Amino acid sequence: MRVTHDNQLTADSTQQSDYLAKYLALYFFVSLTAVLSVSAYNTIPSEMEVESPEMIPSDNSHPASDSNDFGNSENNSQLSDDHITQLQQQVIANFQKPNLPNVNVPERIIICLDVCCDDKSSLFRLGDGTTFTPFNMMKRILDFFLHSKHAINKRTEFALLVMTESEPLWAQNFTNNLKDIFNAIDCTLLKDCATNGCTTESFDFQNVFQLIKQKVGIPEFKQEECILPPPYVVRMLVLYGRSNCLPLIPQDDPYFIFLKKQMYFYIDILLAHEEECGEYKCAEIYDALQDLDNGYSYVFEVSRNATKIHDCIAKLLAHPLQRPLQRIANYTFGVRQ
């Protein structure tokens, strides 16, 4: 039995060495290809940038070149260098990313639902003319998200954390019974429909972290057991609907610092804001919410666009252990010409 165990350890060590050798070979191959393909990168637009928010122009966009190719040779050279640098940084980032098991383990998803908005009369409109209030649209996309996740893995569990005007409330413990979670959502929305819109200027997420500390257990990541899948992963899905109330993210909060270091805890964000961004604080809120990101989050924003909010919630169906980083996620079909 001792010999068998030693042989197994030797085999595991050899397998890990093989994986490392393959990754190193891939790195040098990609780097060499990038250097040899400078001219190709000049004609191929990048798909590796994060989808720019509606209210913030992309800093990565390049002005259209004029017809004088000679006059723009220096700009083209700079563009090529930028593409090569970006590609190399992404390869290095993949090396630095922990070697987590790519397994569809059960998820425990905390629906962090904002029940406040600034203008309840603003509507989402479908293609057939059907309109939805912000609350009803949130309920609609949650219906799609919960049923889809449950169909993918019936062991997925959901909890409901409600963000009222000034404080968070834990409304439903983890359950894989969709009826329970929908009843909790309905009760939450019915209570809030009788209240006025949001009047506070800020919302402190420190209280949210304290609730998570009390209610949620997070599996521990151990480097020596990194190839073994955890019993589950925890994901907090923040659905933020305010356009004038700044979220306060306490970067020095000890438990928030702890959460950002956990390999099996993820925070995804969907901001649904008003359309007239010039009259609200949409850009400031979007920037503040990104402080929740530890590098592995998916962050989306949408105004009163019914199509886009459904697209965003569909992209959030991906399992945290099986999805790429958002900045290199590609949702196009077919071969790029």
UniProtKB/TrEMBL annotation:
It comes from the Eukaryota. This is Uncharacterized protein.
